[in-house]
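Inputs:
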Amino acid sequence: MGKSVMARIGLEIHGYLAMHKTHQKLFCRCTVDQDAAPNTTVCPRCTGQPGSKPMLPNKEAVEKVVTCALMLDCSINKKLIFQRKHYDWPDLPKGYQITISGTYSHPVGEHGKYLDVGITECHLEEDPARWDPETGLVDYNRSGYPLIEIVTEPDFTSAGEVKDWLESLLTTLSYLKAVNKNAGIKCDVNVSTEHHPRVEIKNVNSIKTIVLAIDGEIKRQHEVVAQREKVFAHTRSPPDTYGKTHFMRSKETALDYMFIPEPDLPLIHITDALVENIQKMLPEKPHIKIERYKNMKVSATDAKILASDLALADLFEKLAKTVDPLLAAKWLRHELLKIMNVTQRTLQEVEFDEKHIAELLQMVVKKEITDQTAEGLLKQMIEKSFSPRAYVAQKGLGIISSEEELGKLTQKVVSEHPEAVKDYLAGEEKALNFLIGKVMALTKGKAKADTVKELLKRRIC
Amino acid sequence: MVTLMATKELLTQLQEGKLLCIEHVNQQLVLIKKENPRINAFLYTAEKEALERARALDGKRKKGKVGKLFGLTVGVKANINVIGMPISCASKTLENYYGTYNADVIEKILAEDGIIIGITNMDEFACGISGETSAFGPTINPTSPKHVPGGSSSGSAAAVAAGLCDVALGSDTGGSIRNPASHCGIVGIKPSYGRVSRYGLIDLSMSLDQIAPCAPDTDGCALLLEVISGYSDNDPMMYPLSVPLFTHFGKQPKTIALSPVFEELCKDKKIYKIVKEKVLDFAKKQKLILKEIDLKYVALAVESYYPIVYTEFFSGTRKYDGRRYGKRIEESCKEEVLRRIIGGRMISCAEYEGRYYRKALRVRRAIQEEFEKAFKEVDVIALPTTPELPHLLRKIPSPEASYAYDAFTIPANLAGICAGVVPAGKIDGVPVGVQLYAGNFKEDVLVTVMKVMEGQ
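Outputs:
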């Protein structure tokens, strides 16, 4: 390609709302459980039995969507009108889906902005059942799961922008504990190049595939134009195993969903008090945190990693009040995350008393313990938080800084390893490291390597 | 023609054990076997279930306190879910559907010791005014066999009138309990929208449907209404209101009104004459203030009702796609149901965005407001139930004429208010019921007026 192609890209993002409090579906009390045996978490409502009616929408789900919408700087509609979206498909027990999207709807939130990308609207809907086209079997467990849909303006110009933005969005949503990460997201991607009509790619389900789909579509539209053909508005399937999308339907055969306001549900009022309360509880956005951390002289990489997890960010911010932010960043980003990785734990599972960690880091700063001792303590504190100072005193883990004590040990090592001493004197730096290691081993890591090095040098020379 | 025992007397006999439940059910089952082949009121007789329950209730009575409906047999319209019974909506579409759960009203009836004795015939999916659109044959009017019994709750009204059950449940979307109650000479009540849980009632038009009781007398009807009323979070269109004891008949009205618009719309002036005389007599004897009230928008009721019904019915029937309940509705239903589905599809198409359904909802709002205003001035409004006498069996009128037949009952559904019918007299042997409207959730006033008027 000679010149770069001008593209406008918009997204419709669907995610499963995480129901931490109620663990219930949107319009019935059935349990939300991704792992339940097929058709075990069902009732007359979510299977669409004749005569069944929805219950009032799950309050937690409504509040979660309002929370997300506020986080994306949307204005909140105070009156929610649910709609029936009709279509004929084996996964749809009632023949329609209850949603707040559609012709006459007032979305939960609209006119928002997140990282310079316009948010058209944010709304709530129920998931259909799971239908297996191979066997024809339908599992209604999923029917009625609460879904959030976030629609953006076509403000992206490249797949790279979409990727960065989506990653940040997912971090933000994870701050709110709003979206079930394990269940993943699904996107409909709209791509329009050089003012040609837009083409929609349906049901793309990972960031990697979204990037693939966008790049592929920009290229495809470019090729269509190069062959002097017209780009027409239509819908394409998600990329197949070869990364290719395929024609699904044209705009002319677009489905008519025949939206009507849901007669079985009343208008749902969102009170000012609710909006105010949620607004107060909103966490700071990740990109603002990152900027703030960078202002504390934390490196960009560290700042980004610290802000990627709200629990980690919270811990960092608490620690930075009493210890040097750089030291806190280093210890959390490198040591703590390493231990978490090794032990396969998440911060949410660990109950830290941040005072204990602050105490630990202060002991490091004041050289009361060595880095090595501190690491060992941190590993133990993950299991159960305790005061490191008391523990160090009790177990005698404090740093050995007495020259007399260390002198004895260096003397011992030097006399036991005359070969190494000889090598060092002959110019082999490595030999000195060997001797340092021997002294450190004798102190069980409680001495500072620098001090030991100085003492050894003095003794040998 | 059987003479029906007054509900109160029957209930006393059952509660005191003078009549055992098992005897009562047995007698009624004999009657059903004899009469039902002719009347076709029941589509299914719950013989085994009813006998079992009657025995259990007789045992319960010996042990102590019994429920409000103790031993009374209840007929249930074929669009209300009862576990294990065929809930076909009198349609081939749902011919093989058996209730998988109990409607809220069924749970309440069972809790008060009622006995479900059978599932009653109806117009297919409640689309009809005569009982003749049933896929399983028309119901015969026991009181006036040459004329249709009315509909769509034809079987429930006919079963009560013939003494095949003591009380019955129907549903009322545009007059479906009141119209057959009037034609069969019994009592029926359409509760205020949101008074009775719709959970388990198969949809005709969700924003208008109410489950509705009928009985030989106001005592029975008020009793059944009292039992089935009350908030349930299974129906999100309900309000958490307390339910007055309707059977105490304590709420005396001060004013009653007639409206010239109904007199004008009443095609058979003999009907209006009966109604008017009944009301004048009542007002005089009860020393009520008689008012005349002007209602502008009720003349638009039929025109705004059908777009709403078509649209909501189309939506509600999308689940009968042939994947789950045997047959695809479009391929298995009769003409009137198909007409409404096709009409509903056309109205719902994006092409017609909001031109019909939403406009109709606006007219409905105007009618609602008109009645809100009216009931600030009067307690009850009296009017005929239908503008004409029921047609002769199998002389099916045109769809337009059928639709216009509901002109006096539809306004109550559009306004969401409660309405009831009690027998007022007969014309050429055909029963005529007087209809009463009362304000939203004013069933206590309504039943009090009905009770007094019935006794006169």
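Remarks. Chain A has a mean pLDDT of 89. Residues 411 and 459 of chain A are 8 Å apart (CA to CA).
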